[in-house]
Amino acid sequence: MTQTTADNPAPARRQRAQIKERTLRTDQWWRYPLVTFIIFTAFLVYATWAIFDNDFFVAPYHAPFASPCLAEAVCEPDARLFGWAPLGDWYTWPPGLLILGLPAGFRFTCYYYRKAYYRGFWLSPPACAVNEPHSKYTGESRFPLILQNVHRYFFYAAIVIGLILAYDAVKALIEKPGGVGTWVLIVNAILINLYTLSCHSCRHITAGRLNHFSKHPIRYRAWGFVSKLNAKHQELALVSMFSVMGADLYVRLVAKGVLTFPFA
Amino acid sequence: MGYKAKFRVWRGEGGEGRLEDFTVEVNEGEVVLDIIHRLQATQAPDLAVRWNCKAGKCGSCSMEINGKPRLGCMTRMSTFGEDETITVTPMRTFPVIKDLVTDVSFNYAKAREIPSFTPPAGVEPGEYRMQQIDVERSQEFRKCIECFMCNNVCHVIRDHEENKPAFAGPRFLMRIAELDMHPYDVVDRKDSAQEDHGLGFCNITKCCTEVCPEHIKITDNALIPMKERVVDRKYDPLVWLGNKIFKRTGSKS
Predict the structure, then answer these.
(1) Residue A4: predicted pLDDT
(2) A8 in contact with B at a CB cutoff of 8 Å?
(3) How far are the Cα atoms of A81, A161, A252, B150 from residue A256, in angstroms, in the given order?
(4) B88 & B116 share domain
(5) Most CB atoms within 10 A, among A62, A232, B21, B128?
């Protein structure tokens, strides 16, 4: 029998095993997309609320979703990055709107998140060997999904955001070393930076693009380090997502006076 | 201790067929392929199944067991409950010849479309000098036994027959990555990976990695690195500018 897909697609379709069931899997394949959908939706709902919540700073803690604060009118002097507020008092919207697009874009174009939301939200496919509901598929070969290829630019921005979160954590450590919030911010900064460094684009930039590792020993060692982190990219993506959400909520609750215990 | 297992096996020629029920003896230590062979020996002598090594190294007995692409010879019966009905069907993405035997020539056609390893001009076989760290990435991909379960499970062609002409499938995109990473290969494969072999169709849902019996990290180590190399070539203005300024050819570094 000859394969006929190239010159005669329709008969080849008929020659496949005609099985009506969408899948014959007997395990709980729907759990992964369902849990993904619930977790990501919860994150989106929280992020939307956090953007418009103005209790993002209580010295020395700065909520990660609003850091750096770059507007004079909405950022008190202590909340500004190095005291710097490039936007004058004309800007009165929430400060998170200015910067959240960068980490959000980093996560949206991240290779792990793509897998997760293509499965959980777009059902393309919902799980392996489970038919997807779409009649046509072009993947990331065309607009708009071809824009996923900008991931490395969001990675560059995420490095800067990660450094700023580390700065916020160190500042809190200096000013209030015994504060619970300080350690919440430190743990979050570590996880965010590990997630950023474990990125596939980072792995490519360090040395993945090279074919002669032996000619670039330092870059090769960096690639080896990033590759080890990269193997945990999914775990780091999820843990850092929870940590940033938790740290952000913690700071806001302290700022609102909800958490008032000593050493908060 | 043996027991009687309930099996549903897809029987038919071409695309037409049906699931047939069987009750068949299972003994300790057996795999699904053993049971298929027992069915042949005792109840269905004309049942067609492709197999060869029975050691997970030839890639012949690819089939779908309870809906999952698996090697029949590497799927232990002890992983199923004794009262569980086990459904065995041919790979869905390829045309059926008979029963569990599919026509996988799509894969051979795709393999032929990829330019073979091309060393620099003037370097003869035997003169290649490479360090281990330069080739070890590619060596992972050489573990492939060509069971074609990755191509079978990939929804790009599993659910969309019309994409077959434009998409090589994970197995052969991995082959392109292997050659593109090779320190002695001089063919520039980035443009063709995207334009001719359909790398852009891949939405990295990692099913190829999940089903690989050799546990090759197809997505993380081959497809995503190849996508990043394509970004270097086609979508990153900074890399383009760097190539211009430093007069790099931009092909092989």
Answers:
(1) 43
(2) no
(3) 22, 25, 6, 52
(4) no
(5) A62
